[in-house]
Amino acid sequence: MKKGELIAEFAKRTEMSGSAANSAVNTIIEIITERLKKGDTVGITGFGTFSVTKRAARKGRNPATGEVIKIGASKTPRFSAGATLKAAVNPRKK
């Protein structure tokens, strides 16, 4: 599902206009992004947790030349699925 499809489904389920749904989805994404930029964790009960992890500097290889290169330290966003989401994706068979 792409963002446009998500917005269309959101509009349909909430009976909002397409532009209002677009605004709502974009606002949620902006809020999560802003909080992650500040280093906060965003948890949505039953769905999951968005967080930022630090990656240390390391050495890598250029696949084309085999040359050793330095890869700088960075931060990377991370998502950890909540129990309810995991259960929905992996239903138990009886």
From TrEMBL:
An annotated Gene Ontology molecular function: DNA binding
Instruction: For this UniProt record, give its keywords in alphabetical order, as a comma-separated list.
Output: DNA condensation, DNA-binding
User: What InterPro entries does UniProt report for this protein, alphabetically?
Assistant: Hist_DNA-bd, Histone-like_DNA-bd_CS, IHF-like_DNA-bd_dom_sf
Q: Which Gene3D superfamilies match?
A: IHF-like DNA-binding proteins (4.10.520.10)
Q: Which family does it belong to?
A: Belongs to the bacterial histone-like protein family.
PANTHER family given for it? DNA-BINDING PROTEIN HU, DNA-BINDING PROTEIN HU-BETA
Descriptive protein name: HU family DNA-binding protein
Q: Which organism is it from?
A: Massilia jejuensis
